[in-house]
Amino acid sequence: MTETIVVLTEDALADADVAHLLELHPQDEVDYRVLVPADTDQPLLATVLDELGLGDLRDALRRAVGREPDAGHARATATERLERTLHELAAAGRTATGQVTLDDPLPALRAAVADGGVREIVVVTYPHLVEDTLHTDWASRAREELKVPVLHLYSGTSELG
């Protein structure tokens, strides 16, 4: 039975992300299952602080005045990110499937692990100052709840979260 690596990402994987992912399992026969949340309910304070910390004043202001994406737009964006990621993995010669999840991806992670055959979870996100510091980020929550190995990579870098 082929083992599965579950990849939870908030954006389409960049070339560097795919390269780092494949470096983790260079000779292994693994399938990838990609989960991309349709994020419509981002915590206001944490999101604004993250964007300010990253120097993104425009997005911080947009969030501060309460402009959250509507469900249809969030789902369309997540679907496009998922399709780009699946394309990149296929171009690298890897088998990958995926799905768009709800805002909170933990139920989808829980279901994937319950299906069996999950070797590990790789979470790829941008740095989130508040969540990462308080260990309320997706990777920390998955480690705590699911009891499978979880690796947290920061998007576009080789840095671990």
Detailed description of the structure:
- Helix 2 runs antiparallel to helix 3 and helix 5 packs parallel to helix 7.
- The chain has one domain (3-41, 71-154): HUPs (Rossmann fold, 3-Layer(aba) Sandwich).
- The chain is built from seven helices and five strands, in the order E-H-E-H-H-H-E-H-E-H-H-E.
- Helix content is 45%, strand content 21%.
- The protein has a five-stranded parallel β-sheet with strand order 3-2-1-4-5, sandwiched between helices.
- The chain is an alpha/beta fold and 161 residues long.
- The mean pLDDT is 80.
CATH third-tier fold name: Rossmann fold
The biggest sheet amounts to: 5 strands, parallel
Number of helices: 7
CATH class call: Alpha Beta
Number of domains: 1
Could you state the CATH homologous superfamily?
HUPs
Strand order across the largest sheet: 3-2-1-4-5
Number of strands: 5
Shape: globular
End-to-end CA span: 30 Å
Q: Radius of gyration in whole Å, from Cα?
A: 15 Å
**Beta-strand share of residues:** 15-25%
Specify the CATH architecture.
Answer: 3-Layer(aba) Sandwich
Q: Output mean pLDDT.
A: 80
The unreliable regions are none
- Helix content bin: 40-55%
Query: What is the string of helix and strand elements?
Result: EHEHHHEHEHHE
Query: Would you tell me the structural class of the helices and strands?
Result: alpha/beta
Short summary:
By secondary structure, this protein is of the alpha/beta class. It is built from seven helices and five strands; from the N terminus they run βαβαααβαβααβ. The relative contact order is 0.23.
